[in-house]
Each structure stands twice: as C-alpha cells, then as structure tokens.
C-alpha cells in the first residue's frame, strides 16, 4: 500500500461531513467511499477493504463504538479515526479501547483532516510492513526447521537400519561385547530421533490452524482411551489406574488428537515417575462454566524449586545425563502449548516424595 494513495471509508450520518471528507481526500488521490450509518458502513467495509476508516461516534442505529469493535475484531491493522461533535476525554478513551487510532472533533478544516489521515496512513504502512516481516521470518524459521529436521533425521534413520542389520546377524557373527555396545547405540539413536520428532512438533505448532478444525469433544471418552493405551505400562510398573467422571460431562471444543496427547503425556509421566505399587487417579468434573481435569499420583513428586520451570523447553527435573528415567524435557512444554491452543489453563501441585497433581481447565462447549 502506498501512503500517498489509500482506500478510505467514511461512516457518518451527516451528508455534509461525508461529502466534505470525500472531496478533500479524493483531491489528495485517495479512493474514498462513504456510508450514512453503521450497518451500511460495516457491509461496505467487508467488500471495500479500506486502509483507514473515519467513524462518527453518535449515529442513529448502530453506534460508532459498536462499529469500532466490529472493525477491530475483523482487522486490527485497519486504522480507525473517530470524527465527532461530542468529543470528550472519556469518549476518546473509550474509542481508543475499541481500537481507534485517534479522533478529530467537528467542525474541522481540510488541513486538520489531511494531517490526521496522513498520520493514520503512515501508521497503517508501518503495521503492514511489520506484519510482512513477521510472516517472512516465520516462513524462514519453518523452512529452516524442516530442512534441519530432514537433514538430521535421514542419516540417523539410515544408521538405525544398519545397526539393526548388524544386530540381526545379517552381517556376520559379532561378539557379545560388540553386540551390547551396538545395542546401546541403537537405543540412543532412536531416542535422538524421538527427540527430533518432539522438537519439530513443538517448533511448528500453529494453534491458529489447529483451532480451525476444532469440534465438540467428550473428555471422558478421551480419558478412557488414553488409560486403555497406557494400561500395559501401568501393569509393568505395578501402578493402579482409576478414572472418576460424571455421565453428563459437557463437551469442549478441541482437537481429539491433541487432547489424547495431553492425557497420554501426563498419565504416562504419572506412571513413569511413580513407585512400585503406586496409583494414578484421573478425575473429570464441571465447575464454574469449565470442564476440569485432575491427574494425580502418589509417586516421586517434585521439589518446589522446579515447579515454576517444568513447562520450559528442554527443562528436566533430573537433568543428569545418566538419569534413571529418560526424557527429552519437551513433553510438558508441548502439553502447555496444546492446552493454550484450547484456551485452557494448566497448573501443577507437587510435594517431593509424596506425589504430583496436574490441574487443567477447559471452557465448555454449549451445544
């Protein structure tokens, strides 16, 4: 968009104001359209797609404040300037809260309207330039992530195949000592591949795109399926699993795949970081217009110093290289992003040696 030539929409119930604005702005080379009320103005806004809108605050029918809110929710980068004969400090503040860039009181001179429009269009130019740079940086970042991931995964995957050929005896007999070392290499490379996969998922996670495909989900079903998947791990660790959920739990809007990842990650951690003969309890309930999830265990627990950092990328409570329980430190940061994508909240309570409880709240979906 050129700052010198822009698309401008004037919404005002006074014909003399509309006509004078059009005459002044067209003379400067701008493309100008006008509307006599808020409803017509919003309809014209959608088809005209202006760079800047001049809005009268006091109009019959839809108020100028309501028009500002609608335009702000549709495109926050459109510059909105209030023109009014009722300009007060409070009305100006209210207009700014609804996304207005500036305001001009009636009556105004041609120089005054040209000056404020020029400032607004300069602001519009900076916003669009900033957005274009942000999009370009994001594309470069994603392309780099994809390239690095491919360049790392391909040779690692090939190495795993060669190691498994050797371990399978297809390359001849090997000593037990060599077999043990190769087996360890095979395990470590598979761990690295899993780490790359998790990092890629985290780095390319786009909540806006995911939200476009949300549907109503019953969390009770997701919890049951996740527990079923993890039953064998729990049996191996001799950890009991239980689910407490009401029959009439309201649905939430979300992605079934991501919600399953949240449940399996948190329940899986509760099993892994537990003691033999321990328990993991999953409870679902409705409270204060939200659906709540609590995943509790009586396992190892965490010291308070770790609780503020466990959702950070690559942070591990036991950061030793030879820690008895392996992990990437990415699982909980991925969970946090997935909960955020559902406009939910997640919190954790834990006592070292006594156990941990994760609490998640999701806004419920009203059918």
Please specify the SSE layout and strand pairing:
Layout: E1 7-11, H1 15-27, E2 31-35, H2 38-48, E3 52-56, H3 64-74, E4 79-84, H4 89-97, E5 102-105, H5 110-167, H6 176-203, H7 207-211, E6 215-217, H8 219-237, E7 240-244, E8 252-254, H9 256-272, E9 279-287, E10 290-297, H10 304-307, H11 331-341, E11 345-351, E12 355-363
Parallel strand pairs: 1-2, 1-3, 3-4, 4-5, 7-9
Antiparallel strand pairs: 6-8, 9-10, 10-12, 11-12
Helix pairs in contact: 2-3, 5-6, 8-9, 9-11
Number of strands: 12
What class, by secondary structure content? alpha/beta
Total of helices = 11
Unreliable segments of 5+ consecutive residues = 319-326
The termini sit apart by 43 Å
What would you say this structure looks like, in words?
This protein has helices spanning 15-27, 38-48, 64-74, 89-97, 110-167, 176-203, 207-211, 219-237, 256-272, 304-307, 331-341; strands spanning 7-11, 31-35, 52-56, 79-84, 102-105, 215-217, 240-244, 252-254, 279-287, 290-297, 345-351, 355-363. The chain is of the alpha/beta class. The protein has three domains: 7-133, Rossmann fold (3-Layer(aba) Sandwich); 141-206; 208-363, Histidine kinase-like ATPase, C-terminal domain (Heat Shock Protein 90), CATH 3.30.565. The strands form three sheets. It has a five-stranded parallel β-sheet with strand order 2-1-3-4-5, with helices on both faces. Strands 7-9-10-12-11 form a five-stranded mixed β-sheet, with helices on one face. Helix 2 (38-48) packs parallel to helix 3 (64-74) and helix 5 (110-167) runs antiparallel to helix 6. The relative contact order is 0.07.
């Amino acid at each position: 968009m050129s700052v010198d030539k822009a698309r401008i929409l004037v919404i005002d119930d006074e014909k003399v104001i509309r006509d004078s604005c059009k005459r002044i702005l067209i003379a400067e080379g701008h493309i100008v359209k006008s509307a006599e009320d808020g409803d017509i103005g919003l309809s014209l806004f959608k088809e005209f797609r202006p760079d800047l809108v001049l809005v009268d605050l006091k109009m019959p029918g839809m108020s100028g404040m309501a028009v500002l809110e609608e335009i702000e929710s549709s495109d926050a980068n459109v510059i909105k300037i209030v023109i009014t004969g009722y300009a007060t400090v409070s009305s100006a503040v209210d207009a700014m809260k609804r996304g207005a860039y500036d305001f001009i009181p009636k009556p105004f001179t041609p120089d005054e309207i040209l000056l404020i429009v020029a400032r607004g269009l300069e602001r519009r130019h900076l916003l669009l330039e900033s957005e274009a740079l942000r999009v370009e940086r994001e594309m470069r970042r994603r392309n780099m992530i994809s390239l690095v991931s491919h360049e790392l995964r391909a040779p690692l995957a090939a190495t795993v195949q060669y190691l498994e050929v050797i371990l399978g005896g297809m390359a001849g007999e090997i000593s037990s000592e060599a077999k043990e070392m190769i087996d360890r290499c095979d395990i470590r490379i598979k761990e690295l591949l899993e780490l790359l996969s998790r990092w890629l998922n985290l780095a390319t996670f786009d909540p806006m795109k995911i939200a476009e495909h949300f549907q109503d989900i019953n969390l009770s079903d997701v919890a049951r399926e996740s527990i079923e998947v993890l039953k064998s791990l729990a049996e191996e660790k001799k950890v009991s699993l239980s689910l407490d959920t009401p029959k009439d739990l309201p649905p939430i809007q979300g992605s079934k795949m991501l919600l399953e990842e949240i449940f399996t990650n948190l329940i899986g951690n509760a099993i892994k970081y537990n003691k033999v003969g321990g328990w993991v309890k999953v409870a679902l309930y409705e409270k204060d217009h939200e659906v709540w999830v609590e995943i509790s265990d009586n396992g190892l627990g965490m010291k308070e110093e770790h609780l503020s950092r466990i959702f950070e990328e690559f942070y591990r409570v036991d950061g030793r290289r030879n820690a008895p329980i392996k992990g990437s430190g990415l699982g909980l940061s991925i969970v946090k992003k997935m909960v955020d994508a559902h406009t939910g909240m997640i919190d954790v309570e834990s006592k070292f040696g006594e156990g941990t409880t994760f609490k998640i709240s999701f806004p419920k979906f009203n059918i």
